[in-house]
Prior knowledge:
The complex is a heterodimer of chains A (185) and B (152).
Chain A: H1 2-32, H2 35-38, H3 117-124, H4 135-144, H5 146-152, H6 165-177
Helix pairs in contact in A: 1-6, 4-6
Chain B: E1 2-5, E2 8-11, H1 20-27, E3 46-49, E4 52-55, E5 68-69, H2 71-74, H3 82-89, H4 99-112, H5 118-125, H6 135-151
Antiparallel strand pairs in B: 1-2, 3-4, 3-5
Helix pairs in contact in B: 3-6
Amino acid sequence: MRLLALFIALSLPAASYAQDGAAAWERIFAVVSHPRCTNCHVGESGRPAWDDLGYGAQRLHGMNIVAGESRIGAETIPCRVCHISAEGPNDVPHAAPQIDDAWRLPPAELAWRGKTGAEICTALRDPDLNDGFDMEELVEHVTTSAFVNYGFTPGAGRSPAPGSTEALAQDLALWAAAGAPCPDA
Amino acid sequence: MKLNVNGTEHEVDVEDDMPLLWVLRDELGITGVKYGCGIAQCGACTVHVDGVAVRSCQLAAGDLDGDVTTIEGLGTPDALHAVQEAWVEHQVAQCGYCQSGQIMQAASFLDLNSAPTDDQIDQAMSGNLCRCGTYPRIRAAVKSAATKLQRA
């Protein structure tokens, strides 16, 4: 009986943790699968997208833009030609967004566009596939990155990713504390 | 604020959020750079900042950090830039409105990538629109200029 009580005492928080972790992941996925994120998280092609910007649900970046191996377009036309590195107001629809960082694509292995929750989830918890972040660094990254902040405040004519940097950081911490559980599919 | 354009220092009294394009055209009277769309969709306003192409309609005066070159400062009538020479050789321009932006974009591109493939030329120049449709001549001129710059 005492053993059973101990088992319940231990298993209840564990089950609760797992539920919290799974729920946190669902909220994280709603963010990372949003076009404000997936338009740049495009993988090997280096071809950014303009999904959900008023040009249709599925649309590649105009002007034949390819960021290339450099991820900043150095081989052809650098992102910075149009995307100025400054904290711009971004108050004109269809203009090139600006943030206080050098506009660029994330590394190719951080490919999220068109991927399932399970695929993104397993990549996001793997430092070999998430640009080298452990969980603590990942939380720190989303609270300090101008790119992540932009996703929630993209300016005129662009739907923001759901939530906020603070909420995302909190969910990542919850998810990490629960062992970073991932859905099966 | 102070700015250097084509090697000359200027002092202008403008709001920080005035686009560089306005400063160049309306404050300094440098009109080779053109207004097209105002939202970085056409490339007509392309200038160089420290040698790199920038859409001057997008760059606020207060964010300018470097020396500006416009088409007026790229070459001289006696010593054209290789891209300008190629433009003459291929008689690229039709109405001419977009051409200063096209040339500034091409010059910056070839500075970054001196041996481009045909696909890379198309990618680099696709952000510069030409309502006259001079694209085949633009492509040919960029290839000529690349060859000339490689020999130089």
